[in-house]
Amino acid sequence: MESTDLKSVFTKATQGKAEMDGKTYAKIAKDCKLLDKKLTNTDVDLSFAKVKGNSSVRTINYATFLKGLEIWAQKKGVSVEALSQQIVENGGVQFKGTQGASKFHDDKSLYTGVYKNGGPTNVDKDKISSISQTCDRTSADVRGVKH
């Protein structure tokens, strides 16, 4: 296995940038199916924090990424070469776009019941919808009697 293959996986994951953030670091572990009982999401996050060193730093470069792979290999009990080979074989990060429309949720011709007619409403056309329809607001005389 050549390190250029691993470098290309790193470049693909960072979309051409020289540094990688923690989210992408964890995504590589997930998408390459490295996570198991020995290497968990928590272990990946902790290894990122360990290799980046300073807490104010938010990204790592390729050399630091390789140090992180050493930590992963140690946790899994395999060699760094075997781990690198697994990453290269799985192709690194898998980018997935937005999923298509769901048939039953987005197709309004399939709606049933109240929603078929536009959904529930709080204003009924034939029934009382305001207080002025129930109260007589005409003026009364001095004694309170209406004529």
Notes on the protein architecture:
The protein has 147 residues and is an all-alpha fold. It has helices at residues 3-13, 22-31, 41-52, 62-76, 80-90, 103-106; strands spanning 20-21, 59-60. It has a domain at 3-90: EF-hand (Recoverin, domain 1, Orthogonal Bundle). A two-stranded antiparallel ribbon has the order 1-2. Helix 2 crosses helix 3 (41-52), helix 3 packs across helix 4 (62-76) and helix 4 crosses helix 5. The model has no long low-confidence stretch (mean pLDDT 84).
Please mark out the parts with pLDDT under 50 across 5 or more consecutive residues, or reply none.
none
Mean pLDDT: 84
Helix- and strand-based class? Answer: mainly alpha
Query: Largest beta sheet, briefly?
Result: 2 strands, antiparallel
The count of strands amounts to 2
CATH classification class of the domain at 3-90: Mainly Alpha
Distance between the termini: 102 Å
Strand content: under 5%
Would you summarize the structure shown here?
The chain is mostly helical and 147 residues long.
